[in-house]
Amino acid sequence: MSTVVLLTLTGLGLAALYFLVASGLALVFGLADVLNFAHGLFLSVGAYGTWWASGNLPGAGASGWGFVLAVIFGVVCGTVVAALVELVLIRPLYSRTIEQVLVTVGLSLAGVALLQASWGADPRTYPRPQWTQELTEVAGARVPNDRFLLIGAAVIVLAGLLAFLKFTRIGLVIRAGVEDRSMVTALGIDVRRAFTLVFAIGGAAAALAGALGGVYAGSISPTGGSSLLIFGFIVVVIGGMGSVVGAAYAAVAVGLLQQFVNYTSPGLGDICVVALLAIVLLIRPQGITGKVATS
């Protein structure tokens, strides 16, 4: 029983990390119809920004409120980079899908190269608060505290996004734009004004994933964001393109499946996740919460 509890909680911690990556992707694709392959760069910027701030920013550090300040700095860095990417590179290409893909893929590769040139290709030891390295006993299972940190962060981000989309005017515009952008435009609302904000929110979520993912892994590397981005896309497709709630459901399914299968056969979990993606695409191409397209 303790093993099941341990695998469940660690799987939910992994799911929380995937959700933080996927939530921004879902928002950006749902409103702006952009497959942003540079999303992993925002994650890496958040991770490296937090790592740099913990050792160089006055008041920041690897414990207590100092670590919170370092994470905030990393998230701000990711948010700014995401907004600049939308304004400078993506905005001129909204009607040119192939060019969008090429630009974001190129930016992703350039970002990895820039990080390697700045801090080297070797992994860097990540600053982690002492309590995240400790264990908490739950129903006989000794669970790493960093999993609870990830789960709590994901719940807060999910609740915040849902509240933002439901109760704010710009959130209502975004929801309407996701449902039918042409109709919203016909009503005289310029949906593109919300694109930069959506990119910024997505960048903030990705940067938070990078900052907390470093706590989870204990180290960061220039290619870490690209690795997590793969699972982020899988979660978005399974959950339904453009659905934050669907991304949450899919992240839980992917995280638990990967954790339980890897326990019985290390390495097989990734294959099972890809198999799950294939099954969903065959049975329900629009994803768990996606709507069937009507002609």
TrEMBL record:
Membrane topology: Multi-pass membrane protein
A single GO molecular function term of this UniProt record: transmembrane transporter activity
Classification via Pfam families: BPD_transp_2
Keyword Cell wall biogenesis/degradation: no
Keywords linked to the UniProt accession: Amino-acid transport, Cell membrane, Membrane, Transmembrane, Transmembrane helix, Transport
Annotated TM spans: 6-27, 34-53, 65-89, 101-119, 148-174, 194-216, 228-256, 268-287
Chief location of this protein within or outside the cell: membrane
Localization terms from the record: Cell membrane
GO CC terms in record: plasma membrane
GO biological process: one example: amino acid transport
InterPro entries assigned: ABC_transp_permease, BCAA_transport_permease
Claim: Transferase is one of the keywords in the record: no
Family, similarity comment: Belongs to the binding-protein-dependent transport system permease family. LivHM subfamily.
Name by which UniProt lists this protein: Branched-chain amino acid ABC transporter permease
Organism taxonomic ancestry: Bacteria, Bacillati, Actinomycetota, Actinomycetes, Micromonosporales
